[in-house]
Amino acid sequence: MATIGFLHTSPVHVPTFEALVAELAPATASVAIVDVALLDRARSSGIDDPELLDRLRLALAELERQGAETIVCTCSTIGGVAEAIGHQQRLPVVRVDRPMAQRAVELGGRIVVVAALDSTLDPTRALLESVAADAGIEPDLGVHLVAGAWARFEAGDHEGYLAVIADELVVIAQRCDVIVLAQASMADVADRVEVGVPVLSSPRLAVSSLVNP
Questions:
Q1: Do residues 190 and 117 both lie within one domain?
Q2: Are strands 93-95 and 140-145 parallel, antiparallel or unpaired?
Q3: Which of 52, 104, 108, 183 holds its CA 20 to 30 A away from the CA of 200?
Q4: How many Å apart are CA 97 and CA 101, to the nearest integer?
Q5: Which residue, of 27, 62, 96, is where some domain finishes?
Q6: 110 CB burial (10 A radius; 0-12, 13-18, 19+)
Q7: Cβ-based neighbours of 61, under 8 Å, separated by 6 or more
Q8: Cα Rg for the chain, rounded, in angstroms?
Q9: Residue 210 falls within a domain, yes or no?
Q10: Domain coverage including residue 33
């Protein structure tokens, strides 16, 4: 089985994806790089910033040097540009939320993207629109930013972060058919709430799509 490389912008993602690989494909090796500055730069200067793109190229090349044959960018804000750079450099790079977007479009109906970080909203919306267009579907798509959630994440209050998002989902579910959790860090919320509609998160779907294509 090919070695999977993970490009993270927070160290909290490392154990999540290591555990998923161990569970879903125990014979598969994985390598990872954590570069918090990638997200910081994207938020301050935009995803087209030359310094950000150079840093991304170096990170992806380093994962390849470490043996990665497939690379997952686990940051939804920069996932699209990571995929584009991978295409330019002939590296198989996939953004973590692409399999989730494909699943959301398959389920159809009214889709609401829920995010804790505003820089994630536009890239996730654009991905869903692109996936839907490829499928010949015009989605009923909405977005929702959970106020105050990211401040809790940055403060290391993971329980508080998940709790405030879970509270919002109860209300959001009343006006949609599918909820898409825009960031990998939100994944645990899906197991904490029962809201009557599918709540999709990206980590498991991403790893599963690689080991069971």
A1: yes
A2: unpaired
A3: 52
A4: 6
A5: 96
A6: middle
A7: 89, 91
A8: 16
A9: no
A10: 4-96
